[in-house]
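**Protein of interest**
===
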Amino acid sequence: MKAFVVDKYKKKGALALVNVPEPKLQDNDVLIRIQAAAVNLLDSKVRDGEFKLLLPYRPPFVLGHDVAGTVVKTGPKVRKFKVGDAVYARPRDHRVGTFAEFIATDEADVALKPRNLGMVEAASIPLVSLTAWQALVEVAKVQPGQKVFIQAGSGGVGAIAIQLAKHLGATVATTTSAKNADLVKSLGADVVIDYKRQDFEKVLSDYDLVLNSQDAKTLEKSLRVLKPGGQLISISGPPDPAFAEAFGLNPFLKLVMRLLSRGVRKKAKALGVRYSFLFMRAQGQHLSEVTSLIESGVIRPVVDRVFPFEKTGEALAYVETGRAKGKVVITVAD
């Protein structure tokens, strides 16, 4: 099958389009004929080698973390899916590879595609919706009436997180550029801050939760908009000791994570707020919950641009510009 692979870790290195063997099924796997795959900044970071310590893929490996397609084969222990099912997924770490014609994925990571979405829109959903779900529902347990600050509201995670937070009953603030203000308002944002002209720290105060996806400077400022007892969940780092423990890292890496996050944890403690790092994990059951929200009209996908499979490298370069509104998707097959 054709696939885009990382030949070696290299910053902004080109992906190679090559022929690789079709994936072999394990007992609990479904083989998915990929029809669309989203492109994420995570793909760029993995290719650049930023996650080599946590996710030591051995080149050459197929890149790609989101998939929508059709089940064409099932392992002997698969019970949830059958050949012909339209599905979507974020395959688990160490088994990614959606920039290809097929992928074998554990059925626990897969959900039936929302009936009201096509393959392109469905492919845009898994990684960002699981990130939003695990941050807002699982970790923060957002309650009606709470105030939630979601950074970069027109981005992939932000666009879904705004909609989910509103569904949970929160008042939502976000940052974006002026040209994207109408978009984030249409998604449900109550307070929209033009990050080019306004300082969110001077606008926001007494927030219950911040979903941080930006740099260290923004993270530090975000701590100060929280009320005492509030929580900041970061999806852009730095990793903390709790993450290292949950991820099963070795003692050396646990020490590294502790040192990397020591400064922000100390500042959070001084302010009487909590800091935690979230590294989204594959989870088909959570994705099924999202499916219900999509089919009921609570959440809608936001797709910026669609590229053909052979232009996957261009799609990744476009994502790296940071200008995409919502998600970028590649079409692999009809």
